[in-house]
Amino acid sequence: MSSSLNRGVEKVEVTLKWDPSPLGRPPHDLDIVAATYTADTPSDRPAYLVHFDSRSPDGTIILERESRTGQGFGSDEVMTLELDRLSSDYVRVVVGVVIQQREGRRTFGDISGSSVRVLEGLAELTTSDFTEVAAATAATIAEFSRNESETWDFRPSVRGFDADPQEFTEQMGAV
C-alpha cells in the first residue's frame, strides 16, 4: 500500500425526493439501492445489496429514511455510505434509484419533482432531476471505486435502465 496525502471520499449521503402521486392515483415508490463489488467480480453480480428494509452486514451502508409515497417534508429517502470503514474486500460501490412497478410501468418522466443528491458533508458531489433518463424505470447515479492508495474515488454515473427492480440490481454494475 502506498502512502498518500489524498483522503479521497470517506462518508457520503444520498438523498432522494419526489412529489406524491395525484389524489386518487396509486402512490409512486422510488428506492435508493447500493451494490457492493469485490476485486474478484468488480462488475458482475454484487456481493450484497442495500435497499429498503436492509443495511450492509457491517453497518457501513444504511438506509436511514424510506418512503413509499413521497409524502412529507424534505428528503423522502436518505442513505449513508461510510466508505472509509468498508472492508478492503470491496473495491466498488454503485448507487442507483429504481421505481417500483407494482401499479404498472412508470418512468422518471412520469414522476414529478424527483431529484437525487450525493453529498460529502456539506459539499454536493452530484445532483440529478432524472431528465436525462426520463424514459427509464431505474438509473445509476454514482460510482465509488477504491484506488491503488486504498482511498475512494467518486464518479457521477447517471445511466438509465428499462428494467424492473430485480433486473436492475443484476445489471447496475455492468461497465
TrEMBL record:
Residue intervals passing through the bilayer: none
InterPro entries: Stress/Tellurium_Resist, TerD
Residue ranges occupied by any TerD domain in the UniProt entry: 6-164
Gene3D superfamilies xrefs: sav2460 like domains
Family per record: Belongs to the CAPAB/TerDEXZ family.
PANTHER family per UniProt: CAMP-BINDING PROTEIN 1-RELATED, GENERAL STRESS PROTEIN 16U
Name of this chain's protein: TerD-family protein
Source organism (scientific name): Streptomyces niveus
